[in-house]
Amino acid sequence: MRRDLLGTAREFYERLVDQHPEEPQLQWERGRAHFRLAGITAEIGSQKRAAALLVEARRVFRSLARDYPERPAYRASLAKAHINLALLHRGGGRPEKARTELLAAKAVGEELVRQHGDEPGYQVDLANVHANLAALEVAAKQFDAAEESYRAALAIRRRLAHEYPDVAEYGSELAGNQSNLGLLYHLGARHKEAEKALLAARSMQEELVERHPDMPHYQSDLATTWHRLAVLYADLPEQFTAAEAAHRAALKIRERLAAEHPYVTQYRRDLARSHNNVGTLYCAHGKLAAAETAFLAARKIHEALVAEQADVPDHRNDLAATLSNLANLYSDTARAEEAEAAYRESIQIRQRLAAEYPENPDYRSTLAITYNNLATLLTLTDRPDEADVAFRAAIGIRERLLAEYPHVDVYAVDLGTTCANAAHLALELDRTHPALDLSHQAIETLQGRPPATRNRPQVRGALRNAHWARAAALAQLGRHDEALPHWDRALELDEGGATPGLRLFRARSLAHMGDHARAVAEARKLQEAAAGDGNALYRLAAVWALATGAVGESASLERSERERRAAEYTAAAVELLRAAAEAGYLTEETHARRLEQDPDLAPLRERQPFQELIEELDLGSGLDL
């Protein structure tokens, strides 16, 4: 019914805008007809057509405001046209154009408030300008500026709510502003402040819904705050139950609104986003079947919205996000083909969005994330060359983003992390020099960020991986003295998960450098933890073998001491190789061949204990030793 009523209203206003009156009051009515028709068209028609109508309304109002400055209503209408155009530009992925319109509205609004401070409508419009500027600043990761804008809007709205307690809309706008501030605090990792702001907003909105149960947008605002609380709790330790309960509260409201008002696309979009975030929560807690159900529900709604309003980029962006989340789930459940298909569909959507809206950095950032995730999947499914192509695509996008937005830490962290991952892949592909370049780029990018950024666990982990890759690349080139400080730095940054492996690689570099004493001292410390791990035992044996060669060339030791230690090191290496064989490591032909081909074992091959081991293991018939 509402769609039919809006269609009838549109016909009325279309007839009105076709008129060309000269009298200013009639001109104003004509401009207002364009303005109202734009609103109807945006809801049930074309965003592009709505923007054209608003541009015409703005032209009419601007002319009237210039010619009749003594009539504030004309300037107020001009400010509203600027605001609504800004909203269309923002929704269409044109943030700079949106900002231009908002700054124009701000200038008009501030003048109106100075001249007519007793008119609450002008204050409302100015608060809306501040709030919408804040939303743009949040999207651009300018959190300090966004907080300033939100607080400017909040000050106006608190005053209005206090002076006009019977005007429910002022209380609603105040609560919405409080909720937006809570979201901002969450994005800035100010979790306690975020929860306080969101709970205050929820309390106000619950009261509004109770007093005005027939106002669906009050219910929608309450659902939004529940949703934000859910996402906040999901990011906090041991808050799964609270997050799930908040999601359920938001879903209950949104399901009812979408059912009762199917013509309001925003209600269906909000419902789909709730499903998507519920899926994300369940994924994080291992409830994968429930997560898949939620993601599929979100995808169904997003696909319907894209089919209905293909010119609304937010719908396509939401669909791409859900597809990417589904792909992550499929990857985690060993459904590689489904994961790849979902990643590639998401990439296609995001490529088009990035091309159509180059001034929106989020489209490019999420495209890079999807390329990065696809690269990880291709690596895990043993398709390294294709993975390298995907990593390079992600790196190219992230390099351009960081060049355009050097103050945005997340772009630097993303670039550094991807470079580190790509460096490790390059090592697997025996592309040592590209690995050196990528690891250097990762280190320079991440090390150049402020201390607060560098000390975050995610960044420390990425830096560890970058130093690890650089050390490994330098070691492959025989530049062990240069590799050693990078092994040391990687160990400093490691939180414990990779420490044994890093220490082993470091010991190998020490042995190659001729520092046999420190190399075997480190190997002794690692030996107990390596028990039963064939690969680790073999690598430890290689350290002892290298130490055997190094001690034989030591000019600081007497010959007898060199021989004694060489025999000791050889015996230790042979015992470790025997233990690796007992662990099953040498049963694979490729591993057994390493006894013949691994240059690290060269110092052992002419020694009797090693040759006896080959006979003992009955490997000699297949090896040319």
Summarize the structure.
With 625 residues, this protein is mainly α.
Helix/strand-derived category reads mainly alpha
DSSP, total strands: 0
Principal-axes geometry comes out as elongated
Which percent range describes the beta-strand content?
under 5%
What proportion of the residues is helical, as a percent range?
over 70%
- Give the N-terminus to C-terminus distance in angstroms: 88 Å
Q: Helical segment tally?
A: 28
**N-to-C order of helices and strands:** HHHHHHHHHHHHHHHHHHHHHHHHHHHH
As a whole number of angstroms, the C-alpha radius of gyration is 32 Å
Low-confidence stretches: 1-7
Average of the residue pLDDT scores? 92
How many strands, what sense, and barrel or not for the largest sheet?
none
Outline the structure in words.
Helix 23 (499-512) packs parallel to helix 25 (534-552). Among the domains are: 1-68; 72-165, no CATH class; 528-625. The longest helix has 24 residues, at 559-582. It has 625 residues and is mainly α. The chain is elongated and about 110 Å long. The chain contains 28 helices and no strands.
What distinguishing features does this structure have?
625 residues; 28 helices; mainly alpha; disordered N terminus
Helix/strand layout:
Layout: H1 2-17, H2 24-44, H3 47-67, H4 72-91, H5 95-115, H6 120-139, H7 143-163, H8 168-187, H9 191-211, H10 216-234, H11 240-260, H12 265-284, H13 288-308, H14 313-332, H15 336-356, H16 361-380, H17 384-404, H18 409-428, H19 432-447, H20 451-454, H21 457-476, H22 480-493, H23 499-512, H24 516-527, H25 534-552, H26 559-582, H27 589-597, H28 608-617
